[in-house]
Amino acid sequence: MTTTRRARRPLLATALVLAPLATTLGAQGGAPPGQEALALAYLRVDHAVAARPLAPDAVAPFHAAFDRATLAFFTGRAAQATATLDSLARVAAGSDAAYAAADREARTALAQAPMSVRRLVVGGDTIPWRLFVHTGGGYAARAPRPLVVALHGAGTNEHAFSIAYGAGELLRVAQARGLVVAMPFTNAFTRDGGARLDALLQAVAEATPVDTTRIALVGHSLGGIVGSQLAAARPARVAALACLAAPCPAVPGVEAPVLAVAAEGDLVIPLARVRGAVEAARAAGRPAVELRTLPGQGHTLMVGPALAPAIDWLLARLRR
User: Fold this and answer.
1) DSSP structural state of residue 187
2) Using CA atoms, how far apart are residues 6 and 166, in angstroms rounded to an integer?
3) Would you say 9 and 142 are in contact if contact means Cβ atoms under 8 Å apart?
4) Do residues 314 and 240 lie in contact, with contact meaning Cβ atoms separated by under 8 Å?
5) Which of 141, 142, 161 is nearest to 151 (CA)?
6) Can you say how many angstroms the Cα of residue 105 is from the centroid of all Cα atoms in its chain?
7) Contact 243, 254 (CB under 8 A)
8) Cβ-count burial 206-224 (b if 16+ within 10 Å, e if not)
9) Any alpha helices (H) in the chain, and if so which ranges?
10) What is the pLDDT of residue 143?
11) Which residues of the chain have pLDDT under 50?
12) Among residues 65, 93, 61, 95, which one has the least CA distance to residue 81?
């Protein structure tokens, strides 16, 4: 019998530089102290904001407060981070009833998430991943279909894009566009990434018809960095890459066109760092690198509003 092991999480030092808040825990096992409460607090914010969008003049301070909570957690102040997020959820909800609704939605999402996990065994590691398959029109009416692989940020897991990041905004976008989306545990791809991507694509192809030569990647924070590494390792398979709040153009060897979306108020990976990576890539002769900025947005909450434009940008490259 072959003994499998779980792909390891990054060191806290890595998480401090690149991480959003943790999203779900049960499927990962052994969450650090305070992380479960923090995950629930984060999801409350997500659902409250999705139900009642922030006023324009409230966006920047709200996102800045969220980013400060992120940094507080990754410097060992979990209780402070959780309290801040709970306060933000109450502000965003606007009423006790709306806060209670956000709390119910968050708890339900956390409870149901582990039931959707698939398992991929590669090199002795068991890699969890999720799959979304739209069965309506759009690209789903064509077979085989292109595939979007979504890579979450450090500190969270394979559920991030399906239940967090805008309260599951990616799945709504995928449903509207008729897409197949694979959502693996990003950390497992930080070593032997090319071979692991091959295995993931094979697993997707066995589950549903996809064109595994037309792959688009979207990644947040650490997911953007890992996505760039995968694009460099498998240039014939990755057709386009969208990086959210990540200096991914700095990764060498990427041949695919890259969209870098940076948040103007990001306190974790500042806009200047992303812009510098884009300028360096262009100076190195990579003109197919585009930068877009989101005014007033922060590191993690920017993902929800960034997803639909980023996916449309990716699809435009897959059609060529």
Assistant:
1) G
2) 28
3) no
4) yes
5) 161
6) 20
7) no
8) eebebbeebbbbbbbbbbb
9) 12-18, 35-51, 59-73, 78-93, 96-112, 160-163, 165-177, 193-207, 222-233, 271-283, 303-318
10) 65
11) 1-31, 33, 140
12) 65
Q: CA-CA distance, 19 to 152, in Å (whole number)?
A: 9
83's tokens: 């309290």
Q: The tokens of 187 are what?
A: 């950390």
CA 154 to chain centre: 9
**DSSP helix/strand/coil, 237:** coil
**Per-residue CA distances from 148 to 9, 235, 301 (Å):** 23, 15, 21
Question: Looking up tokens 């890539």, which residue turns up?
Answer: 281
Name residue 267's amino acid: L
pLDDT of 182: 97
Show the tokens assigned to 51. Answer: 């139900």
**What are 286's two structure tokens?**
């990579």
Q: Please name the amino acid found at residue 298.
A: G
Span 213-230, pLDDT tens digits: 779 999 999 999 999 999
Residue in this structure with the two tokens 């969890």, named with its chain if needed? 128
**How many CA atoms lie within 13 Å of 123's alpha carbon, on the beta-carbon side?**
15
pLDDT at 20: 36
pTM of this prediction? 0.88
| Contact between 288 and 258 (Cβ < 8 Å) | yes
For residue 14, CA distances in Å to 19, 155, 184, 196, 298 come to 8, 9, 19, 21, 19
